């Protein structure tokens, strides 16, 4: 008898046995289904969070650098960074001349303010003092009006470009261009509005107001250390640009040879590494819980299959006496175990995807499952059935035909 015939015959007998023991089949299917459901729900949430983080990170721009007094990831004593010399907007020019691969650079001064227009107000607005080049560095797109100009910066003009959230909150149904808003009591004329950018790393990019940096310093205080945002031609050139910027900044800031840098050049991939470090252990533990649940389902399959072998001992003896080979018996029980697992895996996959979707709808957690993950879920469930069905199948195949026939 060929292997193809053995497989076909094993599958037919396995399906007949499963149909004959419906309650046992349902209970076993539920066991493996719970395991797959738990695993896929966890994986779905993890993949959704990862994709959300990648999308937000790409919004920052892989070809963007940010020079600041503090690094994004602090390694060491905070006071070491605190005691560094402040940066200056005057560094923008040498930064632009540092490399041909630097497209633009802009100083960034920050302040949290309250915005007002007539009787409407909105809090926690990020006020940014900057230059026209920030439109290029930050990849901002105008919806109406214009961006800041160099004339605005030089003349310390009281003008502002506002984000989409301020348009919605302060100017519902109105054209904000030409209107005057109050930022901590100081009046600015709106000359432009930005298209919505959404939230990036928990920061609402639409809750922002941009003003000329010289106006900012005059209105909100000059003793500040800016960040300097730098746009690079491509991510491939970023490492070389970082090296050149390091040399330029050390020279401009008179950092003595042998001493560490007294500034930080931050890159988006640093955030990716920090994210991986913070979430790696958490994701591993969550996935481990799902795998343990699936393992419990596999043990349930093995127990049920051992019971099935014991109940069908006489049947096995008859089949062996009529010439059935061990291979045929093994395939029969393996097919039975894998069919139960695949059925449970399919049901668990559907429920798991549904749970992941529900979680994404009622909580801030995103959920996204790749098609390959769905296939892997069902396939992995069937594999669990095969693995945990090996011992019962081998035990059935190794029964002595004579003793099996005597079994009552």
TrEMBL record:
Localization in the cell: Cell membrane
Domain of life: Bacteria
InterPro entries the record matches: ABC3_permease_C, MacB_PCD, Macrolide_Exporter_MacB
Domain MacB-like periplasmic core positions: 25-247
Transmembrane segments: 26-49, 281-309, 330-359, 371-391
Topology versus the membrane: Multi-pass membrane protein
Pfam families the record matches: FtsX, MacB_PCD
Protein name, as recorded: Putative ABC transporter permease
Natural source organism: Myxococcus fulvus (strain ATCC BAA-855 / HW-1)
């Amino acid at each position: 008898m060929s292997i193809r015939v053995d497989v076909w015959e094993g599958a037919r007998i396995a399906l007949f046995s499963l149909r004959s023991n419906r309650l046992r089949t349902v209970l076993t299917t539920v066991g493996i289904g719970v395991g797959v459901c738990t695993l896929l729900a966890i994986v779905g949430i993890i993949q959704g969070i990862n994709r959300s983080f990648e999308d937000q990170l790409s919004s920052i721009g892989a070809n963007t650098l940010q020079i600041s007094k503090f690094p994004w990831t602090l390694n060491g004593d905070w006071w070491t960074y605190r005691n560094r010399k402040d940066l200056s907007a005057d560094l923008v020019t040498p930064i632009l001349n540092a490399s041909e691969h630097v497209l633009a650079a802009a100083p960034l001064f920050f302040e949290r303010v309250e915005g007002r227009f007539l009787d409407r107000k909105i809090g926690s607005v990020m006020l940014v003092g900057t230059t026209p080049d920030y439109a290029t560095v930050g990849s901002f797109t105008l919806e109406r009006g214009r961006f800041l100009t160099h004339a605005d910066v030089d003349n310390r003009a009281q003008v502002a470009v506002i984000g989409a959230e301020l348009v919605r909150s302060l100017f519902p149904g109105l054209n904000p261009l030409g209107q005057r808003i109050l930022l901590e009591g100081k009046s600015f004329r709106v000359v432009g509005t930005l298209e919505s950018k959404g939230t990036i790393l928990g920061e609402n990019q639409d809750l922002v107001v941009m003003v000329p940096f010289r106006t900012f310093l005059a209105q909100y205080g000059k003793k500040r250390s800016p960040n300097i945002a730098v746009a690079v031609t491509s991510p491939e050139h970023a490492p070389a640009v970082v090296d050149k910027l390091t040399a330029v900044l050390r020279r401009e800031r008179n950092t003595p040879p042998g001493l560490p840098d007294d500034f930080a050049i931050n890159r988006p991939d640093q955030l990716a590494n920090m994210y991986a470090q913070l979430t790696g252990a958490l994701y591993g533990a969550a996935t481990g819980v799902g795998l343990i649940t699936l393992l419990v389902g596999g043990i349930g399959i093995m127990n049920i299959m051992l019971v099935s072998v014991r109940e069908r001992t006489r049947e096995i003896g008859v089949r062996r006496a009529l010439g059935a080979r061990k291979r045929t018996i093994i395939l029969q029980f393996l097919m039975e175990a894998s069919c139960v697992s695949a059925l449970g895996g399919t049901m668990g996959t559907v429920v798991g995807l549904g749970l992941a979707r529900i979680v994404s709808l009622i909580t801030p957690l995103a959920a996204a499952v790749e098609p390959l993950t769905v296939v892997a879920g069902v396939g992995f469930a069937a594999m669990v059935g095969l693995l945990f069905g090996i011992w019962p199948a081998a035990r059935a195949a190794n029964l002595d035909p004579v003793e099996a026939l005597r079994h009552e």
